[in-house]
Amino acid sequence: MTQFFQLILDHINYLGAIALFIIGLHTVVTHRNLIKKIMGVNIMGTAIFLFFIAIGNVKDGAPPLLGEHTQNVTFINPLPSVLILTGIVVVVSLTVYSLSLIVRIYQTYGTIDQEEIVAIQNKEQTYD
Questions:
Q1: How many CB atoms lie within 10 A of CB 119?
Q2: Which of 3, 6, 7, 27 is the most buried (most CB within 10 A)?
Q3: Could you please report the per-residue DSSP string of 92-118?
Q4: Gyration radius of the chain over CA positions
Q5: Model pTM greater than 0.85?
Q6: pLDDT band at 126 (very low <50, low <70, confident <90, very high)
Q7: What is the distance between the alpha carbons of residues 30 and 18, in angstroms, rounded to a whole number?
Q8: CB 80 within 8 A of CB 48
Q9: Does residue 28 surpass a pLDDT of 90?
Q10: What's the rounded mean pLDDT across residues 44-62?
Q11: Residue range 82-104: average pLDDT?
Q12: Contact assessment for residue 27 and residue 36, using Cβ atoms and an 8 Å cutoff
């Protein structure tokens, strides 16, 4: 039983990333409000960032810096951190673009509820 708990503690970052992703996916799928959907996508992006950081972590690893004591040292992989920086820029850009589209949708339809927008669009198509 203690081995099971030790295994969970050793992989807690992975479990946290999975939990965050599921929370974000649940938010995207179950909410009708478009802003809440964007928040869910951001939560899923954060989960992916946590997962990449967890992959790059090495137990008792040192940062990959050159110095005096670099022999016989296990280094942490710097590539996931670099990918995270790129991912953050992409997620922020998508968020800003999505929010600007939501503002335009609100100006056009007067609501940000997905089902109400679909109902308004169906009414407009019926009149055409």
A1: 13
A2: 27
A3: HHHHHHHHHHHHHHHHHHS--BHHHHH
A4: 22
A5: no
A6: confident
A7: 18
A8: no
A9: yes
A10: 86
A11: 94
A12: yes
Q: Which domains does the chain have, with CATH numbers?
A: 2-127 (1.10.287.3510)
| Residue 53: strand, helix, or coil | helix
Rounded mean pLDDT of 81-102? 93
Cα separation, 40 vs 34, in Å, equals 10
Six-digit token string for 14: 């992975």
What whole-number distance in Å separates Cα of residue 24 and Cα of residue 45?
9
Residue with tokens 């089902």: 115
Quick check: 48 pLDDT over 80? Answer: yes
Structure tokens at 8: 């969970």
Give the amino acid at 109: Y
Best CA proximity match to 30, nearest among 122, 119, 118, 115: 115
**Long-range contacts from 6-13, C-beta under 8 angstroms, 24+ separation:** 13/50, 13/51, 13/53, 13/54, 13/57
User: What pLDDT is stored for residue 70 in this prediction?
Assistant: 67
